[in-house]
Amino acid sequence: MTHQRSDDEELDSRLAALPHEIPPQRNLWPDIAARIAAVSAAPRADREHAAGWRSGWTQLAAACVLVAVTAVVTYQLVREPEGTAMPPQVAALDWPVITTLPATPASFGSGAVLSPEYVEARALLARTFEARLADLPPATRSKIERNLAEIRRASAELAAALDEHPANSLLQDLLVSTYQEELALFSQVNQVTTATQLRNDL
Amino acid sequence: MNGSRHDERGGQSTDAELVDRARRGDTAAFEQLYQTYAGRIHGLCLRMTGKPELAEECVQDAFVQAWRSLARFEGRSAFGTWLHRIAVNEVLGRSRRRTPPLESIDLIHDADLPIANDDVESDAVVAFDLEDAIAALPAGARQVLVLQAIYGYSHEETAEMLGIAVGTCKAQLHRARQLLKARMAAERVAV
What we know:
Helix content of chain A: 55-70%
Structural class of chain A: mainly alpha
Number of strands of chain B: 2
Number of domains of chain B: 2
Structural class of chain B: mainly alpha
Radius of gyration of chain A: 22 Å
CATH class of the largest domain in chain B: Mainly Alpha
Oligomer: heterodimer
Helix content of chain B: 55-70%
Order of helices and strands of chain B: EEHHHHHHHH
CATH superfamily of the largest domain in chain B: RNA polymerase sigma factor, region 2, helix turn helix motif
């Protein structure tokens, strides 16, 4: 009984001593800033959907699903140890490899422009991404580049669709989500290659 | 946590002032709020998920969601409290969406727990990492323990946030404490 009470007291005392704050190991603000800038860029559209607009909707939704799959593939890729082959269940995507990464899009249809904060934060992440990408094994690098190309293809299609339907809130959300996928990809590669470098430093 | 702090211009800003500025689109003000609360929100997410990478994602999502929802923040609770609730929702939302679910990280099974040895003195040197033990708890027990025993929420508040009954909340807390005590005893025996 005494032992039981002492265990309870010891546990209480240890729990009470735990700090409430545990700072993240890296600064998460640049990613957050880029995402909220992208959110802020979305024009406040009327929530009405134009009749007759639905024709291209399925294709665009499919493109976004593809982007999500692409993000998952990249997520798995960047977690593979260096030199490890891609998991067999993930088929290589058959899209053209981009050899240089364009200083992309940053468009939001013709109805709005992306905020300078987003553009600046994205540029910062992209610079680090390009530098880190060069350190990855060629096979991994080319697959990540293909995935990035697919994300950007979807962004371009959505931006073009927004030109025709600038008030469509669903298109706006989908476009923002592709921008976020791009940032997430930058972030994953930046984060993983940093960890690899740290391990190599040991 | 709800006090004033120096802003970029060398002045003092309270949470309410920063929230007001952020509502008007001032990302620098929101960044100050991030700097103030990042550690606390990350601590909460890390302990609730038990996974560092997932915790970082939840922190980012929580702040982005807070930014989106600033217009609806009425100031009836402190900004930090409001942000906490958003973070808890993000953690729970992710745990529902993910496959396999967070419950899969269970590392301790009740049946595997060793029986405490009463012959061992209670003040024995204990090599016991409480954070690791919390991370290894079953998800439901861990989430209740983190919210109540570390962050001080009541049974009622915790139950509401997690969407469970108060009785379930109490049972999960009891389970978490039992598992932690058993782990402590096991470590003591090992020493």
